[in-house]
Amino acid sequence: MLFWIFVFLLARQSSLTQGHPDLLSRAATEASCDCTINSCRTLFNIVWGCLATIFACTWVALHQNVPDPDSGHFTLLMRKLRMMLMTIIAPEVIVAFAARQFVSARWIAKEFDVSKTHGFFCNMGGFVSEEGHPISTEKQLPAYIPAIRKIKKADIEDKSKGDTLSKGVAIAQGLWFVTQCFARVSQHLPLTELEVATLAFAVLSVIICLLWLHKPLDVQQPIVVARSEVEIDPLQEEDAPPIQEIPFLQQIVYAIMGGYDKYSPISSTSVPSFYSTEIGTKDNQMLATLAGVLGVGSIFRGIHCAAWNALFPSMAEMWIWRISSVYIAADPVLITLLAVAADKWAPNNDIADAVFAILFMVGPVVYPLFRLFLIILSFTTLRSLPPSAFVDVNWSNYIPHL
Q1: CA-wise closest residue to 102 among 80, 117, 113
Q2: Cα separation of 361 and 355, whole Å?
Q3: Contacts for 137-142 with beta carbons within 8 Å, 24 or more apart?
Q4: pTM to 2 decimals?
Q5: CA proximity to 159, closest of 120, 199, 205, 189
Q6: Are 117 and 307 in contact (CB under 8 A)?
Q7: What is the DSSP code string of 203-258?
Q8: Is the separation of the CB atoms in 10 and 185 below 8 Å?
Q9: Neighbouring-strand partners of residue 128
Q10: Between residues 284 and 192, the one the model is more confident about
Q11: Judging by DSSP bridges, how do beta strands 223-224 and 127-128 pair with one another?
């Protein structure tokens, strides 16, 4: 509720700033009369603060699954850059992915009496059999859970490249940026389009970091566990299907909706990039997906739409921003709702499948295009900022004093 109040105030403030030139004149006068080193910011300060926050949102906050043990440094770098690009273009996918893993990890922890860290490690392909295959399915876990319980939580966390403190720094960076934006709105100071776009990333990064708080960061080598002598591995080598490379676009769909039909742990040495263990409570994972794409994702899209009446250097840029904001707000909602409807209520409906197929084919092409428009406009609009955009927040207003 507080967030949507802030979005309303941001949209209202943008409208007031655009519709009342006197407000700009007054801000310009105040800036010229009282613009000291402590009350004024430069264009470099604006850009640097935004880029640092975006980096924390897309690099530090990104928790990947365990890669193939034989992957080289260049392969690992390209893998993370690809995930970083995905976070910038479609952050809702990462939110849905994190939500699915969170629900699955919590279910594993409760069902098999282990910690959430153990649950996340199963999700990310951190445990492998003596043959080197990931232990990542509900059918496999009973055979290996006695050995998994013997592994201490501290031993798993030791493989992580980041602890609670380092993750807290990323969360703090996002919260600090959100606080700055709140302060600017409350003091009737405009936000640049770059700050509006960064604010959306900052809010989502805090949510992603909280969902992945117990997930180890950048683990590159799995832990080998032995199968219990009294249990039989339900997945046998002779029954292994041939190895199939899952297209990246299809992995994105799996990240949102789940259902890795073409993936088999005994046909690989690592889990896919967007893999999440399919658990008994599949409906809960579906709710997590809807909460990620429709709920949390609406925050990201709503912030862009809140800049509807912001100042733009030209009318063309204003309308491109408006059209792009509306499209990214509507497209994921339509695709997600149609996918759920087709899966739950109309699994054999040809019309529903056809509409979903058209949207699914058009969406991955058009959606990144409009996201790219918003990213480009965030930087091009910096060439013509109102004088009040360079006035810094007066933090002394929030400090109790006589």
Answers
A1: 117
A2: 10
A3: 137/235, 137/265, 137/277, 137/278, 138/277, 138/278, 138/279, 138/280, 139/234, 139/235, 140/233, 140/234, 140/235, 140/265, 141/108, 141/112, 142/231
A4: 0.76
A5: 120
A6: no
A7: HHHHHHHHHTTTSPSS--S-EE-PPPTTS--SS-GGGPPPP-PPPHHHHHHHHHH-
A8: yes
A9: 134, 224
A10: 192
A11: parallel
Give the Cα separation of 326 and 394 in Å (integer).
34
Task: In whole angstroms, give the CA distance from residue 243 to residue 263.
Answer: 8
Contact 135, 114 (CB under 8 A): no
What CA–CA distance (Å, rounded) separates 84 from 90? 10
> At 39, which amino acid appears?
S
- 108-144 tens-digit pLDDT: 998 899 999 999 999 899 999 888 889 888 888 888 8
pLDDT at 33 over 50: no
Q: Which residue has the tokens 């250097």?
A: 313
| pLDDT tens by residue, 223-258 | 999 887 655 556 654 455 555 555 655 666 665 555
Amino acid making up residue 401: H
Tell me the average pLDDT of the chain.
Answer: 76
Structure tokens, 7: 């979005």
